[in-house]
Amino acid sequence: MTGQGSSGNVIAALASFFIPGLGQLIQGRPFAAFFYFVGHLLLWIIFLGWIVNLIAALDAAWYRP
Q: Between helices 7-18 and 49-62, what is the axis angle to 10°?
């Protein structure tokens, strides 16, 4: 994965869109993955978890190592 726009980031963004944090985990960022996954679960309690889905996908897509 070379950086923003690479195929690795696209795959990570798609993975993170469906399961928040999975894209960050694919990129080797376990703390960010944990943050997005737990944030997603907590916000679904008040029906705002979809926001974390979008933010996690964008974060994975824009990540530069």
A: 170
